[in-house]
Write a structure and sequence with these properties.
The protein is an alpha/beta fold. About 30% of the residues lie in helices and about 20% in strands. The chain contains 14 helices and 17 strands. It has helices spanning about 25-30, 35-45, 55-65, 85-100, 125-135, 155-160, 175-190, 215-230, 265-280, 295-305, 330-340, 350-360, 440-445, 465, and strands at about 5-15, 35, 70-75, 110, 140-145, 165, 195-200, 235-240, 255-260, 310-315, 345-350, 365-370, 385-400, 410-420, 425-430, 455, 475-480. The strands form three sheets. It has an eight-stranded mixed beta sheet. Helix 5 links the parallel strand 4 (about 110) and strand 5 (about 140-145). Helix 3 (about 55-65) crosses helix 7 (about 175-190), helix 4 runs parallel beside helix 5 and helix 10 packs across helix 11 (about 330-340). The longest helix is centred in the N-terminal third of the chain and has 17 residues, at about 85-100. The chain starts with 6 loop residues before the first strand and ends in a 36-residue tail after the last strand.
Length: about 525
Protein backbone atom coordinates (compact mmCIF):
# COMPACT_ATOMS: atom_id res chain seq x y z
CA UNK A 1 0.00 0.00 0.00
CA UNK A 2 0.99 3.61 -0.41
CA UNK A 3 1.82 4.21 3.27
CA UNK A 4 1.44 2.73 6.72
CA UNK A 5 -1.88 4.47 7.33
CA UNK A 6 -4.40 3.30 4.71
CA UNK A 7 -6.59 5.95 3.11
CA UNK A 8 -10.07 4.50 2.56
CA UNK A 9 -12.92 6.12 0.66
CA UNK A 10 -16.45 5.78 2.02
CA UNK A 11 -19.45 5.86 -0.27
CA UNK A 12 -22.54 4.08 -1.51
CA UNK A 13 -25.97 4.41 -3.05
CA UNK A 14 -28.57 2.02 -1.67
CA UNK A 15 -31.82 1.49 -3.54
CA UNK A 16 -33.83 -1.62 -4.29
CA UNK A 17 -35.57 -0.80 -7.56
CA UNK A 18 -38.94 -2.23 -8.49
CA UNK A 19 -39.22 -1.73 -12.25
CA UNK A 20 -43.01 -1.41 -11.96
CA UNK A 21 -42.92 1.42 -9.38
CA UNK A 22 -42.62 5.17 -10.08
CA UNK A 23 -39.19 6.70 -10.73
CA UNK A 24 -37.07 7.43 -7.67
CA UNK A 25 -36.12 11.09 -8.00
CA UNK A 26 -33.32 13.18 -6.57
CA UNK A 27 -35.90 14.69 -4.22
CA UNK A 28 -36.72 11.20 -2.93
CA UNK A 29 -33.09 10.52 -2.08
CA UNK A 30 -32.52 13.92 -0.53
CA UNK A 31 -35.62 13.56 1.65
CA UNK A 32 -34.29 10.21 2.91
CA UNK A 33 -30.47 10.05 2.93
CA UNK A 34 -27.99 12.12 0.93
CA UNK A 35 -24.91 13.14 2.86
CA UNK A 36 -21.40 14.02 1.79
CA UNK A 37 -17.97 14.59 3.28
CA UNK A 38 -17.50 15.16 6.99
CA UNK A 39 -21.21 14.78 7.71
CA UNK A 40 -21.05 11.17 6.48
CA UNK A 41 -18.18 10.31 8.80
CA UNK A 42 -19.77 12.03 11.79
CA UNK A 43 -23.04 10.19 11.24
CA UNK A 44 -21.27 6.83 10.91
CA UNK A 45 -19.57 7.31 14.29
CA UNK A 46 -22.79 8.08 16.17
CA UNK A 47 -24.13 5.36 18.52
CA UNK A 48 -27.59 5.78 16.95
CA UNK A 49 -27.88 6.91 13.36
CA UNK A 50 -30.30 7.00 10.45
CA UNK A 51 -27.74 5.73 7.91
CA UNK A 52 -27.08 2.12 6.96
CA UNK A 53 -25.86 -0.05 9.82
CA UNK A 54 -23.12 -1.59 7.66
CA UNK A 55 -21.54 1.79 6.96
CA UNK A 56 -21.53 2.64 10.67
CA UNK A 57 -20.11 -0.80 11.50
CA UNK A 58 -17.36 -0.52 8.88
CA UNK A 59 -16.21 2.86 10.17
CA UNK A 60 -16.34 1.83 13.81
CA UNK A 61 -14.51 -1.46 13.10
CA UNK A 62 -11.77 0.39 11.21
CA UNK A 63 -11.50 2.82 14.13
CA UNK A 64 -11.09 -0.09 16.53
CA UNK A 65 -8.52 -2.08 14.55
CA UNK A 66 -5.78 0.44 13.91
CA UNK A 67 -4.81 3.72 12.31
CA UNK A 68 -6.52 4.72 9.08
CA UNK A 69 -7.49 7.85 7.22
CA UNK A 70 -11.15 7.86 6.21
CA UNK A 71 -12.06 9.83 3.10
CA UNK A 72 -15.85 10.26 3.24
CA UNK A 73 -17.28 10.83 -0.23
CA UNK A 74 -21.07 10.39 -0.54
CA UNK A 75 -23.77 8.16 0.86
CA UNK A 76 -27.32 8.11 -0.51
CA UNK A 77 -30.26 5.82 0.15
CA UNK A 78 -33.99 5.64 -0.30
CA UNK A 79 -36.60 3.05 0.70
CA UNK A 80 -37.31 0.60 -2.14
CA UNK A 81 -39.07 2.32 -5.03
CA UNK A 82 -38.76 2.57 -8.80
CA UNK A 83 -35.79 3.09 -11.17
CA UNK A 84 -33.45 5.86 -10.06
CA UNK A 85 -33.24 9.10 -11.98
CA UNK A 86 -30.06 8.64 -14.01
CA UNK A 87 -29.04 12.31 -13.98
CA UNK A 88 -28.96 12.25 -10.18
CA UNK A 89 -26.88 9.05 -10.16
CA UNK A 90 -24.37 10.49 -12.64
CA UNK A 91 -23.92 13.56 -10.43
CA UNK A 92 -23.33 11.25 -7.45
CA UNK A 93 -20.74 9.24 -9.38
CA UNK A 94 -18.99 12.47 -10.33
CA UNK A 95 -18.90 13.56 -6.69
CA UNK A 96 -17.37 10.22 -5.68
CA UNK A 97 -14.75 10.04 -8.41
CA UNK A 98 -13.79 13.70 -8.10
CA UNK A 99 -13.40 13.19 -4.37
CA UNK A 100 -11.03 10.28 -4.99
CA UNK A 101 -8.92 12.31 -7.39
CA UNK A 102 -8.93 15.36 -5.11
CA UNK A 103 -7.63 13.17 -2.30
CA UNK A 104 -4.64 12.26 -4.44
CA UNK A 105 -5.60 8.60 -4.68
CA UNK A 106 -6.76 6.02 -2.17
CA UNK A 107 -5.65 2.64 -0.88
CA UNK A 108 -9.19 1.34 -0.78
CA UNK A 109 -12.86 2.13 -1.19
CA UNK A 110 -15.77 0.76 0.82
CA UNK A 111 -19.28 0.85 -0.66
CA UNK A 112 -22.47 0.34 1.31
CA UNK A 113 -24.80 -0.50 -1.56
CA UNK A 114 -28.00 -2.49 -1.87
CA UNK A 115 -27.21 -4.05 -5.22
CA UNK A 116 -30.66 -4.23 -6.83
CA UNK A 117 -30.81 -0.71 -8.24
CA UNK A 118 -31.83 0.07 -11.79
CA UNK A 119 -31.83 3.51 -13.35
CA UNK A 120 -33.81 5.25 -16.04
CA UNK A 121 -30.83 4.65 -18.36
CA UNK A 122 -29.34 1.27 -17.41
CA UNK A 123 -30.28 -1.98 -15.68
CA UNK A 124 -26.90 -2.07 -13.94
CA UNK A 125 -26.10 1.23 -12.20
CA UNK A 126 -24.38 -0.63 -9.33
CA UNK A 127 -21.96 -2.11 -11.86
CA UNK A 128 -21.45 1.28 -13.50
CA UNK A 129 -20.76 2.85 -10.11
CA UNK A 130 -18.17 0.22 -9.18
CA UNK A 131 -16.48 0.45 -12.59
CA UNK A 132 -16.17 4.22 -12.31
CA UNK A 133 -14.76 3.93 -8.79
CA UNK A 134 -12.26 1.35 -10.03
CA UNK A 135 -11.17 3.66 -12.83
CA UNK A 136 -10.76 6.59 -10.43
CA UNK A 137 -9.03 4.64 -7.65
CA UNK A 138 -6.77 2.60 -9.92
CA UNK A 139 -6.08 -1.13 -10.27
CA UNK A 140 -4.14 -1.45 -6.99
CA UNK A 141 -6.82 0.01 -4.72
CA UNK A 142 -8.98 -2.44 -2.77
CA UNK A 143 -12.70 -2.11 -3.51
CA UNK A 144 -15.06 -3.88 -1.13
CA UNK A 145 -18.86 -3.65 -1.21
CA UNK A 146 -21.55 -4.96 1.09
CA UNK A 147 -24.81 -5.97 -0.55
CA UNK A 148 -28.34 -6.81 0.52
CA UNK A 149 -29.05 -10.48 -0.13
CA UNK A 150 -31.70 -9.35 -2.64
CA UNK A 151 -28.98 -7.85 -4.84
CA UNK A 152 -28.84 -8.68 -8.55
CA UNK A 153 -25.23 -9.42 -9.48
CA UNK A 154 -23.65 -8.34 -12.76
CA UNK A 155 -20.34 -9.42 -14.20
CA UNK A 156 -19.28 -5.78 -14.07
CA UNK A 157 -19.78 -5.70 -10.30
CA UNK A 158 -17.69 -8.82 -9.78
CA UNK A 159 -14.92 -7.63 -12.12
CA UNK A 160 -14.72 -4.15 -10.57
CA UNK A 161 -14.67 -5.15 -6.89
CA UNK A 162 -12.16 -7.21 -4.93
CA UNK A 163 -14.73 -8.55 -2.48
CA UNK A 164 -18.54 -8.55 -2.55
CA UNK A 165 -20.11 -9.41 0.80
CA UNK A 166 -23.82 -10.20 1.00
CA UNK A 167 -26.10 -10.41 4.01
CA UNK A 168 -26.63 -13.89 5.44
CA UNK A 169 -30.01 -13.26 7.06
CA UNK A 170 -33.53 -12.59 5.87
CA UNK A 171 -35.14 -10.89 7.77
CA UNK A 172 -31.96 -8.80 7.66
CA UNK A 173 -30.41 -8.62 11.11
CA UNK A 174 -26.70 -9.03 10.31
CA UNK A 175 -25.88 -5.70 8.67
CA UNK A 176 -23.44 -4.69 11.40
CA UNK A 177 -21.63 -8.03 11.13
CA UNK A 178 -21.26 -7.65 7.39
CA UNK A 179 -19.90 -4.11 7.76
CA UNK A 180 -17.38 -5.41 10.28
CA UNK A 181 -16.49 -8.28 7.94
CA UNK A 182 -15.82 -5.73 5.20
CA UNK A 183 -13.49 -3.81 7.53
CA UNK A 184 -11.56 -6.97 8.44
CA UNK A 185 -11.26 -7.90 4.75
CA UNK A 186 -9.97 -4.40 4.03
CA UNK A 187 -7.36 -4.76 6.76
CA UNK A 188 -6.23 -8.10 5.33
CA UNK A 189 -5.89 -6.67 1.84
CA UNK A 190 -3.91 -3.77 3.27
CA UNK A 191 -1.61 -6.41 4.81
CA UNK A 192 -1.03 -8.07 1.46
CA UNK A 193 -3.88 -10.49 0.78
CA UNK A 194 -4.90 -10.72 -2.89
CA UNK A 195 -8.39 -12.25 -3.02
CA UNK A 196 -9.78 -14.16 -6.02
CA UNK A 197 -13.48 -14.64 -6.71
CA UNK A 198 -15.69 -17.06 -8.65
CA UNK A 199 -19.19 -16.10 -9.77
CA UNK A 200 -22.18 -18.09 -11.02
CA UNK A 201 -25.69 -16.82 -11.76
CA UNK A 202 -28.50 -19.35 -12.06
CA UNK A 203 -31.60 -18.99 -14.27
CA UNK A 204 -33.64 -18.97 -11.07
CA UNK A 205 -35.66 -15.90 -10.01
CA UNK A 206 -37.62 -16.86 -6.89
CA UNK A 207 -40.36 -14.70 -5.36
CA UNK A 208 -39.05 -12.97 -2.25
CA UNK A 209 -41.33 -14.94 0.09
CA UNK A 210 -39.20 -18.04 -0.63
CA UNK A 211 -35.92 -16.34 0.32
CA UNK A 212 -36.12 -16.69 4.09
CA UNK A 213 -33.00 -17.87 5.91
CA UNK A 214 -34.45 -19.57 8.99
CA UNK A 215 -35.63 -22.51 6.90
CA UNK A 216 -36.43 -23.42 3.32
CA UNK A 217 -34.35 -23.88 0.16
CA UNK A 218 -32.54 -20.56 0.34
CA UNK A 219 -31.61 -21.15 3.96
CA UNK A 220 -30.25 -24.55 2.96
CA UNK A 221 -28.10 -23.02 0.20
CA UNK A 222 -26.61 -20.43 2.54
CA UNK A 223 -25.97 -22.92 5.32
CA UNK A 224 -24.44 -25.39 2.88
CA UNK A 225 -22.06 -22.73 1.56
CA UNK A 226 -21.03 -21.60 5.03
CA UNK A 227 -20.39 -25.18 6.18
CA UNK A 228 -18.35 -26.06 3.10
CA UNK A 229 -16.32 -22.85 3.47
CA UNK A 230 -15.37 -23.85 7.01
CA UNK A 231 -14.20 -27.20 5.67
CA UNK A 232 -11.65 -25.68 3.28
CA UNK A 233 -9.12 -25.01 6.00
CA UNK A 234 -9.46 -21.23 5.99
CA UNK A 235 -8.72 -20.55 2.32
CA UNK A 236 -12.23 -19.29 1.60
CA UNK A 237 -12.65 -15.68 2.71
CA UNK A 238 -16.35 -15.25 1.97
CA UNK A 239 -19.31 -17.14 0.53
CA UNK A 240 -22.20 -15.00 -0.63
CA UNK A 241 -25.44 -16.44 -2.02
CA UNK A 242 -27.68 -13.65 -3.33
CA UNK A 243 -31.33 -14.46 -3.90
CA UNK A 244 -31.85 -11.45 -6.15
CA UNK A 245 -34.83 -9.12 -6.48
CA UNK A 246 -37.04 -10.31 -9.29
CA UNK A 247 -39.03 -7.06 -9.49
CA UNK A 248 -35.97 -5.23 -10.81
CA UNK A 249 -36.69 -7.12 -14.05
CA UNK A 250 -33.14 -7.07 -15.43
CA UNK A 251 -30.88 -9.43 -17.42
CA UNK A 252 -28.80 -9.77 -14.22
CA UNK A 253 -31.68 -11.31 -12.27
CA UNK A 254 -31.10 -14.76 -10.84
CA UNK A 255 -29.77 -16.43 -7.72
CA UNK A 256 -26.04 -15.65 -7.64
CA UNK A 257 -23.18 -17.41 -5.93
CA UNK A 258 -19.97 -15.46 -5.27
CA UNK A 259 -17.14 -17.29 -3.54
CA UNK A 260 -14.00 -15.33 -2.63
CA UNK A 261 -10.77 -17.12 -1.75
CA UNK A 262 -7.79 -15.54 -0.05
CA UNK A 263 -5.57 -16.44 -3.00
CA UNK A 264 -6.61 -19.75 -4.63
CA UNK A 265 -9.09 -19.03 -7.43
CA UNK A 266 -9.50 -22.74 -8.16
CA UNK A 267 -10.89 -23.42 -4.68
CA UNK A 268 -13.34 -20.56 -5.13
CA UNK A 269 -14.51 -22.00 -8.45
CA UNK A 270 -14.98 -25.51 -7.10
CA UNK A 271 -17.08 -24.32 -4.17
CA UNK A 272 -19.15 -21.87 -6.26
CA UNK A 273 -20.07 -24.64 -8.70
CA UNK A 274 -20.88 -27.02 -5.86
CA UNK A 275 -23.28 -24.54 -4.21
CA UNK A 276 -24.88 -23.68 -7.56
CA UNK A 277 -25.53 -27.34 -8.39
CA UNK A 278 -26.97 -27.90 -4.92
CA UNK A 279 -29.41 -24.99 -5.34
CA UNK A 280 -30.41 -25.77 -8.92
CA UNK A 281 -31.20 -29.39 -8.11
CA UNK A 282 -33.84 -28.29 -5.57
CA UNK A 283 -35.30 -25.41 -7.59
CA UNK A 284 -38.87 -26.78 -7.27
CA UNK A 285 -38.78 -25.81 -3.60
CA UNK A 286 -38.61 -22.10 -4.52
CA UNK A 287 -42.40 -21.83 -4.79
CA UNK A 288 -44.96 -20.87 -2.16
CA UNK A 289 -48.76 -20.99 -1.86
CA UNK A 290 -50.48 -17.94 -0.37
CA UNK A 291 -53.73 -17.50 1.55
CA UNK A 292 -56.63 -15.82 -0.24
CA UNK A 293 -58.16 -12.65 1.17
CA UNK A 294 -61.43 -14.49 1.73
CA UNK A 295 -59.74 -17.22 3.76
CA UNK A 296 -57.72 -14.62 5.69
CA UNK A 297 -60.89 -12.73 6.65
CA UNK A 298 -62.55 -15.95 7.75
CA UNK A 299 -59.53 -16.89 9.86
CA UNK A 300 -59.47 -13.42 11.45
CA UNK A 301 -63.09 -13.76 12.55
CA UNK A 302 -62.56 -17.27 13.89
CA UNK A 303 -59.42 -16.21 15.75
CA UNK A 304 -61.25 -13.36 17.45
CA UNK A 305 -64.17 -15.60 18.36
CA UNK A 306 -61.96 -18.24 20.00
CA UNK A 307 -59.68 -16.82 22.72
CA UNK A 308 -57.92 -20.19 22.94
CA UNK A 309 -56.77 -19.97 19.32
CA UNK A 310 -53.29 -18.53 18.77
CA UNK A 311 -53.10 -14.96 17.53
CA UNK A 312 -51.97 -14.55 13.91
CA UNK A 313 -49.97 -12.02 11.92
CA UNK A 314 -50.84 -11.32 8.28
CA UNK A 315 -48.35 -10.23 5.64
CA UNK A 316 -50.04 -7.95 3.08
CA UNK A 317 -47.63 -9.58 0.64
CA UNK A 318 -48.64 -7.74 -2.53
CA UNK A 319 -47.98 -4.29 -1.05
CA UNK A 320 -44.59 -4.36 0.65
CA UNK A 321 -42.96 -0.90 0.78
CA UNK A 322 -39.73 -2.81 1.46
CA UNK A 323 -39.91 -4.08 -2.12
CA UNK A 324 -41.20 -0.99 -3.93
CA UNK A 325 -44.85 -1.32 -2.94
CA UNK A 326 -46.91 1.82 -2.55
CA UNK A 327 -47.90 1.05 1.03
CA UNK A 328 -51.48 2.16 0.36
CA UNK A 329 -53.45 -0.69 -1.20
CA UNK A 330 -56.78 -1.29 0.51
CA UNK A 331 -57.77 -4.81 -0.54
CA UNK A 332 -57.15 -6.51 2.80
CA UNK A 333 -58.20 -3.55 4.95
CA UNK A 334 -61.49 -3.01 3.15
CA UNK A 335 -62.31 -6.74 3.26
CA UNK A 336 -61.70 -6.91 7.00
CA UNK A 337 -63.81 -3.79 7.55
CA UNK A 338 -66.67 -5.11 5.41
CA UNK A 339 -66.65 -8.32 7.46
CA UNK A 340 -66.76 -6.30 10.71
CA UNK A 341 -63.55 -7.94 11.94
CA UNK A 342 -62.58 -7.29 15.55
CA UNK A 343 -59.32 -7.27 17.50
CA UNK A 344 -57.23 -6.26 14.47
CA UNK A 345 -54.14 -4.05 14.35
CA UNK A 346 -53.39 -2.94 10.78
CA UNK A 347 -50.24 -1.05 9.81
CA UNK A 348 -48.83 0.89 8.42
CA UNK A 349 -50.87 2.64 5.75
CA UNK A 350 -48.86 5.31 3.91
CA UNK A 351 -51.15 8.29 3.40
CA UNK A 352 -49.86 11.77 4.34
CA UNK A 353 -53.21 13.38 3.40
CA UNK A 354 -55.16 11.09 5.72
CA UNK A 355 -52.64 11.62 8.53
CA UNK A 356 -53.04 15.39 8.11
CA UNK A 357 -56.86 15.04 8.24
CA UNK A 358 -56.55 13.14 11.52
CA UNK A 359 -54.29 15.82 12.98
CA UNK A 360 -56.77 18.53 11.99
CA UNK A 361 -59.62 16.56 13.57
CA UNK A 362 -57.71 15.96 16.81
CA UNK A 363 -57.55 13.07 19.24
CA UNK A 364 -60.97 11.69 20.18
CA UNK A 365 -62.66 13.12 17.09
CA UNK A 366 -64.70 11.06 14.63
CA UNK A 367 -64.50 11.81 10.92
CA UNK A 368 -64.83 10.16 7.50
CA UNK A 369 -61.41 8.70 6.74
CA UNK A 370 -60.63 8.70 3.03
CA UNK A 371 -57.89 6.17 2.37
CA UNK A 372 -55.86 6.70 -0.80
CA UNK A 373 -57.49 9.88 -2.08
CA UNK A 374 -54.44 10.54 -4.29
CA UNK A 375 -56.20 8.67 -7.07
CA UNK A 376 -56.86 5.10 -8.05
CA UNK A 377 -54.16 3.11 -9.77
CA UNK A 378 -54.20 -0.47 -11.00
CA UNK A 379 -53.54 -1.69 -7.47
CA UNK A 380 -54.45 1.18 -5.14
CA UNK A 381 -58.16 1.87 -4.85
CA UNK A 382 -59.91 4.37 -2.65
CA UNK A 383 -61.74 3.34 0.52
CA UNK A 384 -63.82 5.34 3.00
CA UNK A 385 -64.83 4.52 6.56
CA UNK A 386 -65.95 6.32 9.68
CA UNK A 387 -62.96 6.54 12.00
CA UNK A 388 -62.16 7.77 15.49
CA UNK A 389 -58.76 9.32 16.15
CA UNK A 390 -57.17 7.33 18.96
CA UNK A 391 -53.77 9.01 19.07
CA UNK A 392 -51.53 11.32 17.05
CA UNK A 393 -47.75 11.45 16.78
CA UNK A 394 -45.26 13.43 14.77
CA UNK A 395 -41.64 12.63 14.01
CA UNK A 396 -40.97 8.92 14.26
CA UNK A 397 -39.04 6.59 16.53
CA UNK A 398 -35.89 4.54 17.04
CA UNK A 399 -36.44 0.95 15.98
CA UNK A 400 -36.51 -1.74 18.65
CA UNK A 401 -36.37 -5.14 16.93
CA UNK A 402 -35.35 -6.59 13.58
CA UNK A 403 -34.11 -4.67 10.56
CA UNK A 404 -34.75 -1.21 12.10
CA UNK A 405 -33.31 -1.96 15.55
CA UNK A 406 -31.25 1.01 16.74
CA UNK A 407 -32.05 3.10 13.66
CA UNK A 408 -33.97 6.34 13.52
CA UNK A 409 -37.07 6.39 11.33
CA UNK A 410 -38.66 9.70 10.37
CA UNK A 411 -42.35 9.12 9.66
CA UNK A 412 -43.75 12.66 9.64
CA UNK A 413 -47.33 13.08 10.83
CA UNK A 414 -48.89 9.78 11.96
CA UNK A 415 -52.21 8.67 13.41
CA UNK A 416 -53.85 5.65 15.01
CA UNK A 417 -57.44 5.36 13.77
CA UNK A 418 -60.21 3.09 15.03
CA UNK A 419 -62.59 1.63 12.44
CA UNK A 420 -65.72 -0.35 13.27
CA UNK A 421 -66.11 0.90 16.82
CA UNK A 422 -64.31 -0.11 20.03
CA UNK A 423 -62.30 -3.28 19.65
CA UNK A 424 -62.58 -3.19 15.88
CA UNK A 425 -59.70 -2.40 13.53
CA UNK A 426 -56.90 -0.08 14.67
CA UNK A 427 -55.15 1.36 11.62
CA UNK A 428 -51.76 3.06 11.82
CA UNK A 429 -51.40 5.80 9.21
CA UNK A 430 -47.93 7.14 8.46
CA UNK A 431 -46.62 10.14 6.56
CA UNK A 432 -43.43 8.53 5.16
CA UNK A 433 -43.36 5.24 3.29
CA UNK A 434 -41.74 2.37 5.22
CA UNK A 435 -42.52 -1.30 5.64
CA UNK A 436 -43.99 -2.32 8.99
CA UNK A 437 -41.08 -4.41 10.22
CA UNK A 438 -40.76 -3.18 13.81
CA UNK A 439 -43.20 -3.34 16.73
CA UNK A 440 -42.60 0.37 17.33
CA UNK A 441 -45.00 1.16 14.47
CA UNK A 442 -47.70 0.14 16.97
CA UNK A 443 -45.96 0.59 20.31
CA UNK A 444 -45.18 4.24 19.63
CA UNK A 445 -48.96 4.79 19.88
CA UNK A 446 -49.14 3.00 23.22
CA UNK A 447 -50.60 -0.16 21.66
CA UNK A 448 -49.87 -3.57 23.16
CA UNK A 449 -49.27 -6.06 20.37
CA UNK A 450 -50.08 -8.93 22.71
CA UNK A 451 -53.61 -7.50 23.02
CA UNK A 452 -54.36 -7.95 19.31
CA UNK A 453 -55.84 -11.14 17.94
CA UNK A 454 -54.81 -10.32 14.37
CA UNK A 455 -51.96 -8.07 13.29
CA UNK A 456 -51.72 -7.10 9.61
CA UNK A 457 -48.45 -5.65 8.34
CA UNK A 458 -47.39 -4.14 5.04
CA UNK A 459 -44.17 -6.12 4.89
CA UNK A 460 -43.03 -9.17 2.97
CA UNK A 461 -40.73 -10.87 5.44
CA UNK A 462 -38.76 -8.48 7.66
CA UNK A 463 -41.67 -8.31 10.09
CA UNK A 464 -40.81 -11.87 11.14
CA UNK A 465 -37.79 -10.65 13.11
CA UNK A 466 -39.53 -7.57 14.50
CA UNK A 467 -42.59 -9.47 15.72
CA UNK A 468 -40.92 -12.74 16.73
CA UNK A 469 -41.67 -12.29 20.46
CA UNK A 470 -45.40 -12.63 19.73
CA UNK A 471 -45.64 -14.71 16.55
CA UNK A 472 -43.81 -17.90 15.66
CA UNK A 473 -43.56 -19.24 12.09
CA UNK A 474 -46.82 -21.21 12.49
CA UNK A 475 -48.70 -18.00 13.29
CA UNK A 476 -47.62 -16.19 10.09
CA UNK A 477 -50.11 -15.95 7.22
CA UNK A 478 -48.98 -14.62 3.83
CA UNK A 479 -52.05 -13.11 2.15
CA UNK A 480 -52.43 -13.04 -1.63
CA UNK A 481 -53.11 -9.36 -2.15
CA UNK A 482 -52.72 -7.48 -5.42
CA UNK A 483 -49.90 -4.97 -5.65
CA UNK A 484 -46.47 -4.10 -6.96
CA UNK A 485 -44.81 -6.85 -4.91
CA UNK A 486 -47.17 -9.76 -5.48
CA UNK A 487 -45.28 -13.07 -5.20
CA UNK A 488 -47.45 -14.45 -8.04
CA UNK A 489 -44.90 -13.68 -10.74
CA UNK A 490 -47.01 -14.50 -13.81
CA UNK A 491 -49.17 -11.44 -13.03
CA UNK A 492 -46.42 -9.10 -14.30
CA UNK A 493 -45.40 -8.05 -17.81
CA UNK A 494 -41.71 -8.93 -17.64
CA UNK A 495 -39.42 -7.23 -20.15
CA UNK A 496 -35.86 -7.66 -18.86
CA UNK A 497 -35.64 -11.06 -17.16
CA UNK A 498 -33.24 -13.57 -18.77
CA UNK A 499 -35.77 -16.01 -20.26
CA UNK A 500 -36.25 -18.91 -19.90
CA UNK A 501 -36.01 -18.63 -16.13
CA UNK A 502 -37.47 -20.75 -13.35
CA UNK A 503 -40.18 -20.70 -11.95
CA UNK A 504 -41.77 -18.64 -14.72
CA UNK A 505 -40.49 -21.12 -17.31
CA UNK A 506 -40.59 -24.76 -16.29
CA UNK A 507 -38.33 -25.63 -19.23
CA UNK A 508 -35.43 -23.47 -17.96
CA UNK A 509 -32.11 -25.33 -18.03
CA UNK A 510 -28.66 -24.63 -16.60
CA UNK A 511 -25.25 -25.98 -17.54
CA UNK A 512 -22.48 -25.69 -14.92
CA UNK A 513 -19.43 -23.68 -16.02
CA UNK A 514 -16.43 -25.66 -17.19
CA UNK A 515 -13.67 -23.47 -15.78
Amino acid sequence: MSNDVPRIGLCGIALESNAFSPVTTEADFRSAIHIEGAELLAEARKPVSHISSEMSAFVQAMDATGPWEPVPLLLAANPPWGPAEDGYLQACYDTMTEGIRAAGGLDGVYLANHGAMVSTATPDPDGEMMARLREAAGPEAAIIATLDLHANTSERMVESADVLIGYLTNPHVDMRERGEEAAFAMRMIMAGMRPKSAFIRLPLTPPSVTLLTADGPYADMIQYGQRRARETGGEILNVTVLGGFVFSDTPMNGVSIIVTARSDERQAQILAREIAEYGWNMRERFQRELTSIEDAVDLAKRTHADPRAPAVIYSDAGDNPGGGGEGRTTWLLSALHAAEAKGVYYGAFFDPDLAADAHRAGEGATFTAIFNRAGDTTFSKGFEAEARVLRLTEGGFVGRLGIYAGRKLDLGQCAALELGGPGGITVIVIGARHQTADPMFFESFGLDIAAARVVCVKSRGHFRAGFAPWFGPDQVVEVDTAGLTSPILDRFDWKGLPRPVYPLDEEARWTPPNW
